[in-house]
Amino acid sequence: xxxxxxxxxxxxxxxxxxxxxxxxxxxxxxxxxxxxxxxxxxxxxxxxxxxxxxxxxxxxxxxxxxxxxxxxxxxxxxxxxxxxxxxxxxxxxxxxxx
Length: 98
Hints:
5 helices, mainly alpha
């Protein structure tokens, strides 16, 4: 395990972060491929995201609050200060990322 993790760290050490192709999900997928996790060696960012979405679990109820409260605070502050143009801009920017 340690050698596989070290190998992945060296592989990703000099790569530039990219939201779509070189991110934390691609690092995890690379590690899972090296470990042959669950006998499967074709992990990618989609399968890792699906695994997190369908099999992931929260540690406790406060973990949910800590995860979503920054988003809720920013959205409420933006809507309060700028109104609907903030929300429309946020949605437009989100579609650019997809």
